């Protein structure tokens, strides 16, 4: 199933669509998170809800409160319509309203857009529980995984479990600043509910942010998490001056491990074609050449400083996903006695957290099972 927009139009858009929804209560939207990606998405959502009667014109955005030069970040956003810490220089539509209390932000909301570091989602969901409107549904833009009693637990599983809502996912080759600059890109929504897929597409698609909807939600989400581990390996290549041929090998071997991991751990069927969508090979490539995981891993290789030190020095309060995801994947693989089948993921974890020499990275590539 792929949902596509009509020629020259927004999916589900147009006068007929507006008339169809004019008699229904407009859907209220809340963005849960306000980092650089959350703020970039808020710019899109804030504009799109004003073009359709399907949505309420006010978009709430939960903001983790911080003081910026003595002023509350939520107040700065509401007065200046700019996230001066995480996406400076980009104005948000005035209908995007920052709310520092997550329970208040989500109250009465029909559509929840989750976009925050995966380390925090469990705690935030606990604060939201009991405040969710019956019939609400959501979409997760969070790239990461967790571990559960049966091994892999996806972030969407965690949200579904804690909030009892239907949840879809959006993953793709989407560096936040480029999206904010309105440079053309593609993305993938994994959604099993066709009607909700249409709604998400209308909410999020623009002429320069093009969306494909597929039903293979678990694979879409797995791609979004695992590519960040591979990006750490790409950063090691850059820091060690290995060149583009070696980085290409890291990307290929990383993709092979991503496919194998999905085939073993996804509960549903895995479509190889999903890896050819933006959430798969495209996101993997862009993350291995740009993005924070590659950047910090390169500095790790050059300076010898710890991941934690570099995160604080280089990311202005943002969080890395790749190293922590490698730690979660390592635990899952160790529990299943499968470390030897995923040498790239395993070696990246050991270099980041167990003091293994970064010089061993090339040995991992040379002796990868793909070459035996």
Automatic annotation (TrEMBL):
Short name of any one Pfam family annotated for the protein: NAD_Gly3P_dh_C
GO cellular component: cytosol
Enzyme Commission number(s): 1.1.1.8
Molecular function GO labels: glycerol-3-phosphate dehydrogenase (NAD+) activity; NAD binding; protein homodimerization activity
Location within or outside the cell: Cytoplasm
Coiled coil: none
UniProt keyword list: Cytoplasm, NAD, Oxidoreductase
Binding site for substrate: 143, 292-293
Gly residues compositional bias, start-end: 1-16
Major localization listed first in the record, in broad terms: cytoplasm
Catalysed conversion reaction: sn-glycerol 3-phosphate + NAD(+) = dihydroxyacetone phosphate + NADH + H(+)
Residue positions binding NAD(+): 33-38, 64, 120, 176, 292, 319, 321
Active-site annotation: 227 (proton acceptor)
Gene Ontology biological-process entries: carbohydrate metabolic process; glycerol-3-phosphate catabolic process
Entry-linked Gene3D superfamilies: N-(1-d-carboxylethyl)-l-norvaline Dehydrogenase, domain 2, NAD(P)-binding Rossmann-like Domain
Sequence ranges assigned to domain Glycerol-3-phosphate dehydrogenase NAD-dependent C-terminal in this UniProt record: 216-362
InterPro entries given in the database record: 6-PGluconate_DH-like_C_sf (IPR008927), 6PGD_dom2 (IPR013328), G3P_DH_NAD-dep (IPR006168), G3P_DH_NAD-dep_C (IPR006109), G3P_DH_NAD-dep_euk (IPR017751), G3P_DH_NAD-dep_N (IPR011128), NAD(P)-bd_dom_sf (IPR036291)
Family: Belongs to the NAD-dependent glycerol-3-phosphate dehydrogenase family.
Protein name in UniProt: Glycerol-3-phosphate dehydrogenase [NAD(+)]
Biological source species: Phasianus colchicus (Common pheasant)
